[in-house]
Design goal:
Layout: H1 2-12, H2 19-28, H3 43-50, H4 53-61, H5 82-88, H6 92-100, H7 115-125, H8 131-141
Helix pairs in contact: 2-4, 3-4, 3-5, 5-6, 5-7, 6-8
């Protein structure tokens, strides 16, 4: 278990960019892709926050839950998902990747907002998001690939 704790700390400090290291740890069983550290970080949440798509794919391929919410303790209780974090960090290609792999855009964080609500804001006020990214993401949010009734609450 110590190696997982150390890996989580390492991920937060830059380790996430070394895909070979992450792959090696996953294959050796030394990294649980759904491990949550004491402040609610998971490897997928960190890779999503940094926009490391190769690591995101690797973690998802090894069973990481794209809907696992951050913050299950009294210190950090935001309930953000990797999808929400990727959007907040303006990693739109990561958000699309997570949607393609089963992330639920209708889950609510502690404040009650969803990815969908934040996405509407980013469409209007963020010049970094491209029309193509907007169109692709909207397929999941509005276009029938997901529906609110199919969503977990």
């Amino acid at each position: 278990m110590d190696s997982i704790v150390n890996v989580s700390g390492s991920l937060r400090s830059g380790f996430h960019t070394k895909i070979e290291t992450v792959q090696d740890l996953l294959e050796k069983g030394e990294l649980d892709p759904n491990y949550m550290d004491s402040v609610g970080y998971t490897p997928l949440l960190i890779a999503s926050d940094k926009g490391c798509n190769e690591v995101v794919i690797l973690l998802l391929d090894h069973g990481a839950d794209p809907n696992l919410r951050r913050g299950l303790n009294r210190f950090e209780d935001s309930k953000y998902t990797p999808l929400m974090v990727s959007l907040n960090s303006q990693h739109f290609s990561t958000a699309l990747l997570l949607l393609e792999r089963g992330a639920d855009p209708f889950l609510k964080c502690k404040r009650g907002s969803t990815f969908c609500g934040r996405f509407e804001f980013f469409k209007q006020y963020n010049s970094e998001i491209t029309d193509e990214q907007i169109e692709e993401i909207e397929k999941y949010v509005n276009g029938g690939l997901l529906t609110k009734s199919a969503s977990k609450k």
